[in-house]
Amino acid sequence: MDVRPLLLVLPVLGLSWASTLDLDYGGVPLWINRFLGEPSVFSLRGRMDSSWYRAVNSQSCPLECDCPIQWPSALYCDQRGLHSLPSSLPARTQYLFLQDNSISGLQADAFTNVTRLRWLFLDRNQLLSDQALATLLSNLTRLENLFMNHNNLTEVPSGLPPGLRQLRLAHNHIGQISPGVFKNLHNLTLLLLQGNRLKTIREGAFTGLPSINLLDLSNNLLEEFPKHLPPSVQQLYLSENSISGLSQDCLKGFQSLRYLRLSHNQLQNPGLAPGAFNLSSLVELDLSYNQLTSTPVVPTTLLYLYLEANLIQEFNVSSFCSTVGPRDYSHMRILRLDGNRMASHQLPADWVMCLRVLHHLFI
Ligand SMILES: *[C@@H]1O[C@H](CO)[C@@H](O)[C@H](O)[C@H]1NC(C)=O
Ligand SMILES: *[C@@H]1O[C@H](CO)[C@@H](O)[C@H](O)[C@H]1NC(C)=O
Ligand SMILES: *[C@@H]1O[C@H](CO)[C@@H](O)[C@H](O)[C@H]1NC(C)=O
Ligand SMILES: *[C@@H]1O[C@H](CO)[C@@H](O)[C@H](O)[C@H]1NC(C)=O
Ligand SMILES: *[C@@H]1O[C@H](CO)[C@@H](O)[C@H](O)[C@H]1NC(C)=O
Ligand SMILES: *[C@@H]1O[C@H](CO)[C@@H](O)[C@H](O)[C@H]1NC(C)=O
Q1: DSSP H or E stretch at residue 353
Q2: pLDDT for position 237
Q3: Residue 113: nearest ligand to its CA?
Q4: Closest ligand 5 atom to the C-alpha of 299?
Q5: CA dist list (Å): 282 to 24, 257, 277, 279, 299
Q6: Which residue in 15, 225, 232, 299 has the most C-beta neighbors within 10 A?
């Protein structure tokens, strides 16, 4: 086997795709992604003339908002400088766009007439945590998607409606999660909490999330790998914290964990137990931008391992294969080791037998 084609020298790749946002402000107006059932247009600003909507649409529409004719269940009130909710929201509203305003609190009767709300967009306002918000939300029994990124919340609102499927609370000021606050959310699959002030995760904080797929706790103040995470999580993001090690049983019980991101932490080899990543469900492991000095032991079933920008000086084949044989080999497809203290000529001779299905090696 000729190894040369595998050796690519690409020092910094990925900065461009890393910054792609999941917000889609492009595309055809009012088009709903049929596959995800999600609206693809979060704002009509700059797309259509407000007065045109008002002139041609006979349905009632709050003065502060735009009501598209083609999509009567949507109400666009984003980017209006609003300090409170428009009054008389039409009862037909199921998609309410209120992002990019200055709303800090909601009046007690704000949602009395919009009990059919399924999507509520409140990103980039100044919402504060208070009981009124909790009470209002608990009455929205049909709500499935709640966007409250970039607000001033200091806690997760209690009384969240039990039908929620996604809850986005990234970039708030949340310092702790009260036990049981998610306990009724049996359908929640996505929970964003990155960019908050979480230092520890208390016992019971995530109980009652049997369907959770993606949990993002990146960019918080965690100093240890948190205990008490929901065991059904498949994508766990813990990048940009201050985690220095992982114990032997950190990942015990995570039967479905596939993607684990721990980049930009303070991981060091002494703190990393040899069996910490011994989890055969893992597909992708991101340990880039840490302080590792040697390659950690990973399961042979792992497909993608990112170790770039560490302090790695030695490549230890036993990290990837404890034994090598016809059926004992690493299934790794992509291995990134660039930005370390190692050069390709330092690779031990036997690595090819172990990493025999590798597509790309960056070194
Ligand atoms: C709810 O609808 C009723 C009847 O249309 C109206 O009188 C009331 O002002 C509405 N309340 C709000 C908060 O929009
Ligand atoms: C919540 O719903 C209950 C029952 O439907 C109703 O009596 C109450 O006024 C609602 N509260 C708010 C704040 O809308
Ligand atoms: C929300 O936080 C920002 C800073 O993050 C601050 O400028 C603003 O005054 C806060 N708003 C409220 C209502 O507290
Ligand atoms: C959860 O989802 C299922 C299937 O889509 C649905 O039947 C059920 O009513 C939902 N649960 C709640 C509390 O909305
Ligand atoms: C990895 O886990 C399996 C069971 O899940 C166990 O049998 C094995 O001893 C573990 N290996 C290490 C190195 O901890
Ligand atoms: C490679 O790692 C194994 C355990 O994972 C260790 O026993 C061995 O000493 C390491 N080899 C070198 C050369 O550091």
Answers
A1: helix 351-354
A2: 98
A3: 1
A4: 1
A5: 29, 6, 8, 6, 8
A6: 225
Separation CA 251–CA 173 (nearest Å):
27
Strand partners, 91: none
User: Rounded CA gap, 243 and 225, in Å?
Assistant: 6
Q: How far apart are the first and last CA of the chain?
A: 19
How far does the centroid of ligand 6 lie from the alpha carbon of residue 242, in Å? Answer: 26
Distance between CA atoms of residues 180 and 324, nearest Å = 47
Contact in structure between 170 and 193 (CB atoms under 8 Å): yes
pLDDT score for 52: 78
Q: Which two tokens stand for residue 239?
A: 């990048």
Q: Is the CB of 275 under 6 A from ligand 5?
A: yes
Q: Is the CB of 115 under 6 A from ligand 1?
A: no
88 lines ligand 1 (CB under 6 A): yes
CA distance 28 to 3: 47
pTM: 0.89
What residues contact 308, with CB distance under 8 A and at least 6 apart?
A: 288, 289, 336, 337, 338, 339, 340, 362
d(CA 304, CA 95): 38
Q: Encode pLDDT of 38-81 as tens digits.
A: 776 788 877 777 787 788 888 899 999 998 887 888 999 999 99
Give yes or no for residue 157 having a pLDDT over 90: yes
| CA 242 / ligand 5 centre spacing (Å) | 27
